[in-house]
Design a protein that fits this description.
The chain is mainly α. It is built from six helices and three strands. It has a domain of 97 residues: Winged helix-like DNA-binding domain superfamily/Winged helix DNA-binding domain (Arc Repressor Mutant, subunit A, Orthogonal Bundle). Strands 1-3-2 form a three-stranded antiparallel beta sheet. α3 crosses α4 and α5 packs across α6. The longest helix has 28 residues.
Length: 150
């Protein structure tokens, strides 16, 4: 392998490790509220605006089928609801309910504590730079994948 391949491997392995770490943190924050981290991810994706299942899947980088399964559970639990989609008759919008917003608000205090701990450990400027770099990496990979799909 060459140096670029080594970097790609190191980046991928680091992101896989980060994913596991974020899931562990997410579970510790969401479990006391009675929701899974997967439920939290879907609700967070629609916290501001309702989206169709496919839109949530694109935003999260997971399959539409996974989001559909979670959305159905969230609707059954009263945390989300399906609404008509003016842009598409068959693809309903998934919207968070007041009960869903309340669950997210219950997570917020411990979420703020974790964010403060991370900002203190990294330093605010390095924390922001890290997020910017990760965002740039994700955007670049989106472009590369789209170009390959062509």
């Amino acid at each position: 392998m060459n140096a670029e391949q080594d970097l790609l491997d190191a980046a991928a392995l680091t992101v896989f490790r980060l994913n596991g770490q974020f899931l562990t943190i997410g579970d510790s924050l969401s479990a006391p509220v009675g929701i899974s981290v997967a439920w939290w991810q879907v609700m967070a994706a629609i916290q501001e605006d309702p989206l169709p299942v496919a839109g949530i899947a694109r935003a999260m980088g997971i399959t539409r089928q996974s989001v559909q399964r979670i959305a159905d559970l969230l609707v059954d639990k009263g945390l989300c609801e399906y609404r008509p989609n003016p842009a598409h008759k068959r693809a309903k919008l998934v919207a968070i309910t007041e009960q869903g917003h309340a669950a997210l608000r219950r997570i917020n205090p411990q979420h703020a504590v974790m964010a403060a701990r991370l900002a203190q450990a990294l330093g605010p400027a390095d924390f922001a730079a890290t997020v910017a770099t990760l965002t740039r990496l994700a955007t670049t990979l989106d472009t590369i994948i789209a170009d390959a799909d062509g």
